[in-house]
């Protein structure tokens, strides 16, 4: 019996480039499927460099707390492709089941008939087909790469658009300065559709504001039209409609406070879905998003490390992602001092020096590991050299198990805080290695 992995593997031969930003192939594919993008539930479209997935997670938690049926589309997946497609269901959404995924992929393969198309485009078309066929109140749609020419940008009139934190990443596809990146992200803005902005640098905000003026999209700007802050161990959100006093989010790190604020602002910018303060409060304590400063209290990895070690997993992989992770870890250190040990693996398409430089003076050492089954992965030796260049002590290892064994053999004054980071692809391997189940 054909499985989804086998079908997706066949898709890889349909286009010579893994990434080729264009809408032409996507619209042609969707037309063959009967244009399911026109039969979707109301869409909240989310772009940005960092924080897209976390913002979607907050939106999902709030909408589901209010009893709404929520479809979710995110990428990349960590362990299984099914994680990208969450379908609304009673009691909360469920990852797409293998039989339904196989059927949708086979339909797309048959209709495409061997024409050139990227894997992301054809699998996004399959997701749209599933979303159109399954009743829901709302679809949370995360951009894959960029925005303007991303395969998800075929929805003519979303309910709202969101642009999370924008910084440098994917320069080979989006441009080599942050203003070019911002222009690509701003490509999801639509006329008369509210665009909600995470607080941005002046340069980024100026680019987005120019695009919004040109397409006549009203903007709601973080730090200007709404604000979020921590006060006395609580999360305080404020906009012109009033103030919310909420528990701190379940997702760790001050950067998640800002993502929560963007999600709240988004839902307060529309009148289709009504939420009570109690429902928003419940969402803050139930929200879940794997591999974003995720604590791993049990499993194979904690069992390999010194007793009482803290183990954290974060998929941060660009310079700004490293910055916010380092800020969160500095806060952890202030509250509870422990030796900080990084386990890192990175892709060759990422700025390893810039990412790891955020941890100089904070991490005691870096243990570098390979990322398996990825042709763009840097060798552990190359990542270790980048760490040393950033002023960090580093040791390269051939496997995850070897790295954890080396950490376990060290003599720490107190149990260490071990943070595994550098790539979402590595994060997926770590979750599988640890035996952590994703639902």
Query: Could you name the CATH homologous superfamily of the largest domain?
Result: Mur-like, catalytic domain
What general form does the structure show?
globular
Rounded mean pLDDT is: 95
Q: Any guess at the CATH architecture of the largest domain?
A: 3-Layer(aba) Sandwich
Strand content: 15-25%
**Number of H- or I-type helical stretches:** 16
Ranges where pLDDT stays below 50 over 5 or more residues in a row are: none
Radius of gyration: 21 Å
Strand order of the largest sheet: 4-3-2-5-1-6-7-8
List the domain count as a whole number.
2
What share of the residues lie within helices? 25-40%
Structural class, from secondary structure content?
A: alpha/beta
Q: What top-tier CATH class of the largest domain fits best?
A: Alpha Beta
- At the fold tier of CATH, the topology name of the largest domain is UDP-N-acetylmuramoyl-L-alanine:D-glutamate ligase
Number of E-state strands: 17
> Biggest β-sheet, characterized?
8 strands, mixed
How far is it from the N-terminal to the C-terminal residue, by CA? 24 Å
Pathway: Cofactor biosynthesis; tetrahydrofolylpolyglutamate biosynthesis; Cofactor biosynthesis; tetrahydrofolate biosynthesis; 7,8-dihydrofolate from 2-amino-4-hydroxy-6-hydroxymethyl-7,8-dihydropteridine diphosphate and 4-aminobenzoate: step 2/2
Family: Belongs to the folylpolyglutamate synthase family.
Protein name: Dihydrofolate synthase/folylpolyglutamate synthase
Domain Mur ligase central: 46-265
Give a written overview of the molecule.
This protein is an alpha/beta fold and 439 residues long. The protein has two domains: 4-286, 3-Layer(aba) Sandwich (UDP-N-acetylmuramoyl-L-alanine:D-glutamate ligase); 294-434, Alpha-Beta Complex (Protein-Tyrosine Phosphatase, Chain A). It contains 16 helices and 17 strands. The strands form three sheets. Strands 4-3-2-5-1-6-7-8 form an eight-stranded mixed β-sheet, sandwiched between helices. It has a six-stranded mixed β-sheet with strand order 12-13-17-14-15-16. The protein is globular. It comes from Labrys wisconsinensis. Residues 310-423 form the Mur ligase C-terminal domain. Keywords: ATP-binding, Folate biosynthesis, Ligase, Magnesium, Metal-binding, Nucleotide-binding. Residues 46-265 form the Mur ligase central domain. This is Dihydrofolate synthase/folylpolyglutamate synthase.
